[in-house]
Design goal:
333 residues, 34% helix, single chain, globular, alpha/beta, nine-stranded mixed beta sheet
């Protein structure tokens, strides 16, 4: 188990940077007594069911991009994973740019796959560069707000327990999964989940798929379609705003107590496989737990294709780590 990080100055600075989340949490604390026995519609809003077996839940009112699609379980959860619910938060990639969205980011097979295996899949949209308030820190504020809303969203839509599991009596376990730029955000959310809100559970596991885990190196390597994604996302270069890069970059948020599966294809020509390896080395040096998976021959998008062998390997690693967590919780002390 990694060391506690709740007093990390970098982590506290990152929380301060996404101050809108703090405002939401203060509001919820202030109204906690009067809303204790009322519907969570006061903090989340259901827009209706989609055609693909999900319900749209809004987690903010500053932008039309602040919503998530919640897919309830449609099949049984592996008994080795313990009692449900387990929510998997999915954060899409796309260089943090508006031209890539929840509908165009090539990850659409994951949520139905997870729901069929007893998970509640929560596919999150968020403001991106080009939207008002998008980019750092607004993008990060959105995904962290969405994370904090997941327990309420599941209660609001009446998400059933996984088939074969009893009705849940505790908060859901939350896996934070992200791809590419979304992998960066997933590592960010999990790291801050340890500190941001005592009413929301710390993430159980991170699954970071081809993440840009070091924003400074990513900027130096001019990652993305036009080579400008990180500078536009951050609003400046590492030389201009070094403190902001420190707050946003996953590698500088180490150590973390949230274990992670970090996976990438050896043929990824969008994010260098070496970046995932270097992040895992840094994590190990900080006593943080990671499992690095490099899939031979897989490209950038194979890791988010539920029909590809690369995803089968990632999903197996995810379930193994979740089962290990259950075993540790049940072990005599």
């Amino acid at each position: 188990m990694a060391q506690s990080t709740t007093s990390s100055p970098v982590r506290l600075a990152a929380i301060a940077a996404v101050g809108g989340v703090g405002a939401y949490l203060v509001w919820r604390w202030w109204h906690s007594e009067e809303t204790e026995n009322t519907s969570t519609q006061e903090t989340a809003a259901v827009e209706g069911e989609g055609d693909a077996g999900y319900t749209v839940v809004r987690y903010g009112d500053e932008s039309s991009e602040q919503f998530m699609r919640v897919y309830p379980p449609t099949g049984p959860l592996d008994p080795n994973l313990g009692d449900g619910p387990i929510a998997v938060m999915i954060i899409h990639g796309g260089y943090w740019k508006t031209k890539y969205s929840i509908d165009t980011a090539a990850h659409s097979s994951l949520a139905p796959f997870l729901a069929a295996r007893g998970f509640t899949a929560v596919d999150v949209e968020y403001r991106r560069v080009g939207h008002e308030g998008g980019g750092w820190p607004g993008t990060n504020q959105d995904v962290l707000s969405a994370y904090c809303m997941i327990p309420e969203a599941l209660e609001l839509i009446g998400s059933p327990p996984s088939q074969g599991s009893p009705a849940p009596t505790t908060q859901p376990r939350i896996v934070v999964l992200g791809h590419s730029a979304g992998g960066t955000l997933a590592l960010f959310v999990s790291a801050l989940s340890e500190s941001v809100d005592p009413l929301v559970p710390t993430a159980t596991l991170t699954v970071a798929l081809a993440p840009v885990a070091d924003l400074v190196k990513g900027h130096e390597q001019r990652l993305s379609d036009d080579g400008d994604a990180i500078e536009k996302y951050m609003g400046g270069t590492p030389e201009e705003i070094p403190e902001e890069y420190t707050k946003a970059s996953p590698v500088t948020l180490l150590p973390t107590t949230v274990p992670a599966v970090v996976a990438i294809g050896s043929a990824d020509d969008t994010v260098p496989p070496a970046m995932a390896a270097e992040y895992c080395v840094a994590a190990a040096a900080s006593n943080s737990v990671t499992e690095r998976i490099e899939i031979a021959g897989a490209d950038h998008f194979a890791v988010v294709d539920a029909a590809h062998p690369a995803w089968a390997r990632i999903f197996s690693a995810m379930c193994t780590m979740l089962a290990r967590d259950v075993q540790l919780a049940q072990a005599p002390r």
